[in-house]
Design goal:
homodimer; 112 residues; alpha+beta; 3-stranded antiparallel β-sheet; DNA-binding
Chain lengths: 112, 112
DNA sequence: AGGTCAATTCGGCAAACACCGAAATATCAA
DNA sequence: TTGATATTTCGGTGTTTGCCGAATTGACCT
């Protein structure tokens, strides 16, 4: 993870509709949801949401997989992991190894 | 942590100079650095940095304490913790307790 | 009080961003 | 192929944001 990626991810999450979408997909789990369903649940126009989804996807916090006609979007938990890793790298100048090791476990089981 | 706080924090970190400042302060540790020193290390104008620092501080990711004339800024690790907690709350609909418990450990020793 | 240094606020400009409706593209089903 | 549904792209508008230099405020020292 580089600084530019991290900025892109933070910027992607720093917007109401996008953060709601992301959290919704976190709750939903690995299977994700099609775009129109997300749009319905959030009460946003499909066109507006589409832009948001592509921003989230480009930032790497969402994955998109086609299922028939629909594109299912799902939260990418490992990107959250990478983001936190990036943030606290070299924490306290490395004196306290505590900080660097902690958040390397994030991953929802890929079940269901 | 509420959605609005999270957005503010993400937006604060979604900018090059601010993210650099934050990471610098993470590396430096709990004692932090005075504003002008940060400005020197990052190569930004003090006035520009000042705005950035206040954004980071208002978002809660930095703390500010006065030491004589100087104001020392330090990274607030517990805000990172809260942010991640907020992100992965109700992960996978709570089916997998794995996700919710993981990131509650972040904290640099308050030493030195 | 007067001088110095740290930090912030202010004014102005250019670039980026969010929103919408309408039109275009893509996939499937009949 | 035609029609229906899913999603994206396009134009246009108003708001937000980042940058800077200059002026201002705040704390300290003599």
């Amino acid at each position: 993870m580089e600084q530019a990626n991290a900025i892109e991810a933070f910027a992607a999450l720093a917007q109401n509709t996008r953060l709601e979408a992301f959290r919704l997909l976190i709750r939903v789990g690995p299977k994700g949801l099609p775009a129109l369903e997300i749009s319905r649940q959030l009460g946003t126009k499909p066109s507006t949401l589409s832009g948001h989804l592509s921003i989230l996807k480009r930032a790497g916090v969402l994955t998109a997989t086609r299922h028939q006609r629909e594109i299912h979007y799902a939260a990418n938990l490992s990107s959250v992991n990478a983001l936190v890793q990036f943030l606290i790298a070299d924490c306290c100048g490395g004196q306290i190894d505590n900080c660097s090791e902690i958040v390397s476990l994030l991953d929802c089981a890929e079940t269901s």
